[in-house]
User: Fold Alcohol dehydrogenase from Micromonospora echinospora.
Amino acid sequence: MPDETVVAESTGAGDDLRSAAVGTLRLPPRIHFGYGARRHLPEVVRVHGRRVLAVVDPFLVRTPIFRETVDALTEARLDVLVHSDITPELPVDTLDAAVATARDYRAEVVLAIGGGSALDAAKLIALLSAYGGPAHRYYGENLVPGPIVPLVAVPTTAGTGSEVTPVAVVSDPGRELKVGISSPFLVPSAAVVDPEFTLGTPATVTAWSGIDALVHAVESFTARPVDLDWSGLLPVFTGRNVLSEPFALQAAARLGPWLPVAVHRPGDRQARREVALGSLLGGMAFGATGTHLCHALQYPIGALTKTPHGLGTGLMLPYVIDTLMAQPAVAAQLAALGAALEAIPAADASAARTLARVVEINREIGVPRTLAEIGLTRSQLPQIAELGLRSTRLIAAAPVDPSRELLLDILERAHDGALANGSLR
Assistant:
């Protein structure tokens, strides 16, 4: 079982930005970050076994950095079988052949190298290899019965944070929205984050994945705290807490100044390093807390428009912040995030300034301003609100009481490009 750290003692008065002083983190036992970290993979992988199933994005297979990685593993006397038949958006039935391959090969460890779809596919292959299908047996929270096949995760995009989180998301043809499997047992056994893998990422992928990482930081820092029952099984996501807060703030501090640079100067090694670190820290934050309104609304938006996940969450972020500012406690949290985002003194920060900076970042990296720009009509908004309400785990983490009316108001303003507390121009 992944390492779990819990603190459950109130530590003092006067810090109104903190939730009740309790916390839960579930993270890989080993996390390695930095240029060259991939060279440590043979040592990391062989701890778990010799027979390695590498689940890889197909476009990576012929790249020099991937071949170098596989050569290093084979030189360390590890047997490596490459599976690269990964379908975008991860339809659940596309995993059957991979699971059969893993079982026939008797894989002792799964090595995931790729973007969010590859990492999520690897999690589910490791799960279904251990316990069998069908996958829908595990939809929801805490339904994975025990440890899965050990998984080592190596992200090649900076955004999803899946290398450190307890969730995998798939598309199921029988359902209108993507579905998630959430369990502490899905946390990888190790995460190796080498920014070198991100250097060839196209600008649009950098933008959509990077803004999604910023959404992770914002939503984890503003997530509603959960009143934990320490005597029973804990929920997978426990809301904003004292252990997750530093990760969210550091993620914002890395992404704020460096994401636009990485988009416009893709070969800038410092920018790539900072954005990769921001993504990792964002994953470490929301893997404990969960996310909320941007994600709940993006799932139906993405299903209807076939647009990338990060584009949708990033588009919705200003409108969600605009709504949350009406809550004084959340406005204070947003101000703290803004201080990190811009590296300014807390006395100069405000929720309104945070909103303005997020709008500016979206403009700089090319995130569409409105839902109309991605093809949605006003007549579709009530359906999106209804579908958003079905994402009960996400909605429950919102720091405001969710309702159809509240979601519809956010969507209508996002359609028209109207902010109550600022401007998109």
Notes: Confidence is low (pLDDT under 50) at residues 3-19. The domain at 34-198 is CATH 3.40.50.1970 (Rossmann fold). The chain has two domains: 34-198, 203-416. The first helix runs from residue 41 to 46.
